[in-house]
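Q: Predict the assembly, please.
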Amino acid sequence: MIAGGLKARLAEVLGKTPTRVQYIGGGSINQAARVEAAGISYFVKWKHSAPPQFFEREARGLSLLQQSGVIRVPAVIAHSDSAPQHPAYLVLEWIEESPRAEPLAFAVAFGRALADLHRCDAPHFGLDHDNFIGELPQSNKQKHDWVSFYRDQRLLPQIEMAKARRRLNPTREGLLRKVVERLDTLLEGCADTPSLLHGDLWSGNFMVGAGNQPVILDPAVYYGDREVEIAMTDLFGGFPPRFLAAYQEAFPLFPGHERRKALYQLYPLLVHLNLFGEGYGARVDEVCRKYV
Ligand code: ADP
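A: Predicted assembly structure:
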């Protein structure tokens, strides 16, 4: 429920009293609602035990994506850490989901827009600040070398967390350690350009906006190998069939991307293992066995 304290705070930041609140399901981490005030809708999400800067980091990621100018994200209206009177919250422009009247055109527009996003590059892998993936910390310490970035900033912290959370049996840990040891060889031929990534692009994190326009949400932004992003779009399903072909036409992936794909799915799988538990364990093991 949206607590009275948060409602009062929203009235302050919006400069008008919320008149209608509709709760939204589907978010895996936060509570969310459509809040109407003076005839305008806002998307509000909040979290009671959010770590410091939780929504500030999401807002920064959204701003980075918006600054790319190539793909729509909801505009950030306000955010705050928890305070005695209210939980941490983020207020965004409300995106009206349009029916997919032309699914093919949407898929093509989405593939091309993501390709344009990935053409935005930087001198280093990582980012000038850390952020979160789901509610887990995501370290973005900048590096010139992608393989060591993927190992030290992505796989190893999740493996250590899984160990601390008792989600690694000895077999799984052994498999993961072997993958990590062989990463240089396994990732041979990978991209060497740090691309701007959404960072958590599963099907719950995009919408069809007005005019069939793709809108991306809830990012965990950093500069990385764009194959990681593409691999994630093929992990849990839900992306339109022509999406990948349109992406590939606009910005072809390097040869060998299919061979590296499951390795790049390992990061989100470990994140899911840590967030949601053993339900993701078998897929982690399966990926490791492919490469070990
Ligand atoms: P969580 O951080 O809990 O995963 P999300 O940011 O992914 O929450 O939002 C949950 C759902 O709410 C999304 O899957 C989407 O359907 C909807 N949603 C997110 N942002 C907006 C928005 N700005 N306007 C309208 N609906 C939104």
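The chain has a mean pLDDT of 96. The CA atoms of residues 99 and 208 lie 7 Å apart.
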